[in-house]
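Hi everyone, sorry if this is the wrong subforum. Our group has a chain we'd like a structural model of before ordering constructs, and none of us has done structure prediction before. Sequence below.
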Amino acid sequence: MDLILKSERKQLIIEKINSDHFVTLDSLVDLLNTSESTVRRDLDELATEKKLRRVHGGAEKYQSLQEELSNFQKSIKNVHEKESIARFSQNLIDEGDVIFIDAGTTNELLVREIDKKGVTVVTNSIHHAAKLVEKQIKTLIIGGFVKQSTDASIGHLAVEQLSKLNFDKAFIGANGIDADFITTPDIEEAVIKKMVVNNAKKTYVLADASKVGHVSFVKIVGVEQIELVTNFGQHVLLDKIKEKTRVYEV
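Answer:
Right subforum, don't worry. Here is the predicted structure as tokens:
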């Protein structure tokens, strides 16, 4: 009987992850009406079976190299961690800086936090630009083809404009970070991000811990070219990343 109940629990977990792409430990405790320790064991077993990926505070669906969540799906994942990363990253901005802020949900929270005087922000996100203008921050928006799922301007026009600009600091996102590279599922977004890194004096990748250890289709740059702002210091890969670059654990 216990085996049947476990099988049913695990099936419900898989169905929930396939539907939502990400589940928290607390939500599964409520859904399954069982203890946290039982849910943890079920998640660990499913992770061993390669049916999901364990992340801090829950689990997520295994993604293919080219799979990418929409901004809405990303916005409900690890919200508190992303808020902490954004609050910390605001302190990396100095008055008078010219900065680039990439499209993405963590960077959207950074836009909300900016309060330094005399800052100029360049962005390839329509939504970021609107919020920056509302805050009366000097804003330059990069044009181009808008990718619907991520709200990022990409393509030849965006690349041409960025090629003419330099930045004191850049804040970008990445779908995956391993010991050697930061990665993204989209070739055109990778081109944009790489150009931004090359044109910035310093680049910060804002990424919650679920991105650490994940690998996507396209390599952007090596980790030695960026500094990482993340929220969780117990991932084995972080020690390897620290050998190559600075890691801020918030």
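For your construct planning: The CA atoms of residues 21 and 179 lie 25 Å apart. Residues 2-20 form the longest helix (19 residues).
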